[in-house]
Amino acid sequence: MAKTSPAAPADARIYTVSEVNELVHDVLENSLPGIWMEGEISNCRLYPSGHTYLTLKDEEAQIRAVLFKGAALGLKFKPEDGLKVLVRGRVSSYAKRGDLQFVIAAMEPREKGALQLAFEQLKARLAAEGLFDESRKKPLPEFPMSVGVVTSGQGAAVHDMISVLGRRWPLARLLVYPVKVQGDGAAEEIAQAVRDFNALLPETDVLLVGRGGGSMEDLWAFNEEITARAIAESEIPVVSCVGHETDFTIADFVADRRAPTPSAAAELAAPDWRAVLGRVESSEQDLADCLKEKMQVLSERLARAAAHPLLQSPERIYEELARLLDELWMRLEDGMTQTLLDAKRALSLNAARLEAYSPLKVLSRGYAIAEKLPGLEILRRAGQVRAGDRLRLRLAEGQIECEVSNDEKR
Known about the structure:
Blueprint: H1 17-31, E1 35-46, E2 52-57, E3 62-67, H2 69-72, E4 84-94, E5 99-109, H3 114-128, E6 146-151, H4 156-168, E7 173-178, H5 186-200, E8 206-211, H6 225-233, E9 238-242, H7 250-254, E10 257-258, H8 262-269, H9 273-306, H10 309-312, H11 316-357, H12 359-363, E11 369-372, E12 377-378, E13 390-394, E14 399-403
Parallel strand pairs: 3-5, 6-7, 6-8, 8-9, 9-10
Antiparallel strand pairs: 1-2, 1-4, 2-3, 4-5, 11-12, 11-13, 13-14
Helix pairs in contact: 4-8, 5-6
């Protein structure tokens, strides 16, 4: 048998989806206005609006939650996935979708204190940026002539630093920039003081930034990111001096040097003039001893040089050279004379040889040179002439012209 859908009674009120969601929203808001809840954060996301949306979960269930910007401003640490927290707030809903939502009014870490967690988070983040690296640390000047101090204008810290600096290194000009060192606005004042020194007094040789000891809450201004970044960006070397020896702050890690106390910072930043004077006097004595030793060595060298024979009789320096020059001159003259004689003998020998081979010498022994006219062709064979050719016969003395009478050739 077919089933029929139940019909609403005639007097029944019919709600819209929006109305139901609004009713649920009102019930939740009124019945659970402020409760404490423990859970682990997951799916944590910060939006540009400043609101943080996340999920709180335990081993068996989860609930969506929101941390609005106004409530987030009061947190010292940053919510992140995996962090176990204790939250205070109200159970509500997002009426448009009907989603259950826990609106967080306050939050604190369950396993660590809020300040300690915030400290560790900021430390890890700045370390990842390289702000603690030794490679970026600036050296402190050995003899500062201008020392800046950023601390409270009252209290023992500033008096200790002034006293120590005045006693150890009175040559330096001391510039004190008083600031709040704890409470609201302290971090901003400290950061601004560091920036002002760099902008207005860049000739300052070193900055001492710190305060006396106290609880973590008291020292918190030196754990703020704005303070750390101002110190890290300082062109002037910074000595951080916050608290006592066991206290460490973020400022200690980013500063160029860390001193355990303000008094120790003053000792670190400036030398003791007595020690410097002692070094000067020691250097003066070392210099005098060195000069004395050098003079002794030079005096001995001068004495040895003065005793040298060449300096006893300076003319000896050029006597040997003069004798060598004379010897070379004589050797040059002898060489030139012998060369001329050899040349003369060679000339006579060559002249005799030329004389022996001279055609005129041959003609004087009864020979003649026959030349055919008109071109004066020298005759070596009878076949070179015929009857009627005119010849010139060159004798030892004179010449004869004649004519060939027949063609008979022998």
